[in-house]
Specification:
By secondary structure, the protein is α+β, with helices and mostly antiparallel strands. The chain has 2 domains: about 55 residues, no CATH class; about 220 residues, no CATH class. It is built from 10 helices and 4 strands.
Length: about 300
């Protein structure tokens, strides 16, 4: 609940029931708790009104339970970030070329960072899927846990080169699966949550398996692919509405209409991928850790 200045003043939640009201509709109760710092004891809530709207009972009360427990308006910040995706685009447009062109030369740092970011993304995606981020506290806890796990995993794999290469192949495979699914959607319009995850996970497994056999070649291809994908996605954030995000691809209720600009972005990815592979093959140096892995 927010006031005219968009400040949080309370919370509203709805409770369902098994009692049938009308046809297939059951009775439910919608409770609005307005923030009141003075009412702190259990059972001391002030009842402002009780009304009935069809099959919904509406209760309006005041209590401190409706006051924010954390002085950080995550919803407002996330809303600003959603409206200003170019901020993420700036990160992608800088990090993408660095990863694509210097993945071999800076292999340990690039691999550890990518895997850490990937772990953070997976944790946050699962938190959203299980509804752990519906509150400000839940969102903050999920972000902190994601950050800690990402950093810990990054530090651990930095000391194990074979794990680094395997996970790098897994991440690259997942990114390629997302791209393949976007291409399928662009051509046929087919959209399925299981289709997205099935293709992405399958490609991730393939990438991880290939990493055991290709070594340096896998690192070259993976870093070129991931960096090129990030560079391409940066431009999709600068010019939104022309390329479906991963969230839109797995949302069955989203309405997507792709145009010719979608294929321009695909072309940007293809040119970036070929250019980065050629550059790393001919110009980029290979990190000593990776050379030792190949010799082993």
């Amino acid at each position: 609940m927010r006031d005219a200045d968009d400040k949080i003043i309370g919370i509203t939640f709805t409770q369902g029931s098994d009692t049938v009201c009308d046809g297939d509709v059951n009775y439910s109760m919608e409770t609005s708790v307005t923030c009141s710092e003075d009412l702190t004891e259990a059972g001391s809530a002030l009842v402002n009104s009780v009304t009935k709207d069809g099959c919904v009972y509406k209760i309006d009360i005041s209590h401190k339970a409706g006051c924010p427990t954390v002085a950080i308006d995550v919803d407002a910040y996330m809303g600003w970030l959603y409206e200003n995706e170019w901020c993420i685009g700036l990160i992608y447009v800088i990090a993408g070329p660095i990863i694509a062109l210097f993945g071999l030369q800076w292999f340990p740092y690039v691999a550890a960072s990518l895997v850490a970011i990937f772990i953070m993304g997976v944790v946050l995606s699962l938190s959203l899927a299980f509804g752990w981020m519906v509150t400000t506290t839940g969102t903050i806890v999920s972000c902190v846990v994601a950050l800690l796990l990402g950093v810990i995993v990054g530090i651990v794999i930095r000391r194990n080169i074979w794990i680094m290469i395997g996970l790098l192949g897994l991440v690259a495979g997942f990114f390629s699966g997302s791209l393949v699914y976007a291409l399928i959607f662009g051509v046929s319009g087919w959209k399925s949550v299981w289709g997205f995850w099935g293709i992405s996970v399958l490609m991730a497994v393939i990438g991880c398996v290939l990493s055991c056999y290709l070594g340096k070649a896998l690192v070259l291809i993976s870093t070129s692919l991931i960096g090129s994908y990030m560079f391409m996605r940066a431009w999709t954030l600068f010019f939104p509405g022309n390329y479906p995000s991963e969230a839109e691809l797995i949302d069955p209720d989203s309405e997507l209409e792709l145009n010719a600009i979608f294929w321009v972005f695909i072309g940007v990815f293809g040119v970036s991928l070929i250019t980065s592979i050629i550059f790393q093959t001919k110009r980029a140096k290979t990190h000593s850790d990776l050379e030792e892995y190949n010799r082993a």
